[in-house]
Amino acid sequence: MTDLPHCETLTLARQGHALLVTLNRPQARNAMSLQMVAELATVFTQINADDSIRAVVLRGSEGHFCAGGDIKDMAGARSQPAGDGEQDPFYRLNRAFGHMIQQVNESAKVVIAVLEGAVMGGGFGLACVSDVAIAGPSVRFGLPETSLGVIPAQIAPFVVERIGLTQTRRLALLGLRIDGEEAIRLGLVHQLCADETALNAAITEALDRVRHCAPAATANTKQLLHRVGKEPMHSLLDDAAEQFAAAVRGSEGAEGTMAFMQKRPPAWAETGPDDQH
């Protein structure tokens, strides 16, 4: 089991097979600072090889998910003019977030985003790289960058992948804000909950479903899904068939088949004391 890193902008807690990660800068509605970006990257790096962690729940503290980028970091970058042969500080600031969000997107873990209050800019992008997005009644999404004279540089590709080019054009080019009902219609959110009780029940249900799915099969499926549209279909299906054969002959395939025949839960679905809710 991986030792969790010390974080100042995140709170981390283990809950059975899940790691609960809370963005914890409530005074700034959990705006994404460079430190938070670095800490998220460290967390996802450290848990990557930890088979005991099968899901990551991302949530914001005190009623907001994430209000976007941190204004103080922007001001700090403005005071650091790029020297000859050096990268522009705004480039470094922006690209650091891009590396982190790509890392979350490609994580082998199931990423569950719990979306409440402000989900703006970078927070919007983080929601778009989740595998499961569950929203509360207070949620408000927005891509305000163009209204601020900047562009959604690192998040735009992930928003397009999530909701399509047509809808991303409308949201990004008009700097729109939308509520949970519209987020459901766009496919940005999978589930909209009426209150805190329903929200917590939805999280518990999602984590229970993760527990019932084989860890390696889940990770390999996620990797396969990310390849769709980026490789020739014929060669992708050839490789997928090889992976299927390996999975059937592997330990998870054998256990899953035997459990089905014996009408019992497979080993990976067994609960421990920390999995009880």
Which SSEs are present, and which pair or pack?
Elements: E1 10-15, E2 18-23, H1 34-47, E3 55-60, H2 71-78, H3 89-105, E4 110-115, E5 118-120, H4 122-128, E6 132-135, E7 140-142, H5 156-163, H6 165-174, E8 177-179, H7 180-186, E9 191-192, H8 196-212, H9 215-227, H10 233-249, H11 251-261
Parallel strand pairs: 2-3, 3-4, 4-6, 5-7, 6-9
Antiparallel strand pairs: 1-2, 7-8
Helix pairs in contact: 1-3, 5-6, 9-10
Mind explaining what this structure looks like?
Pfam families: ECH_1. By secondary structure, the chain is an alpha/beta fold. The protein folds into 2 domains: 10-210, 2-enoyl-CoA Hydratase, Chain A, domain 1; 214-275, Lyase 2-enoyl-coa Hydratase, Chain  A, domain 2 (Orthogonal Bundle). The protein contains 11 helices and 9 strands. The strands form 2 sheets. Strands 1-2-3-4-6-9 form a 6-stranded mixed sheet, sandwiched between helices. Strand 2, helix 1 and strand 3 (55-60) form a beta-alpha-beta unit. Helix 9 (215-227) runs antiparallel to helix 10. The chain starts with 9 loop residues before the first strand and ends in a 16-residue tail after the last helix. The relative contact order is 0.11.
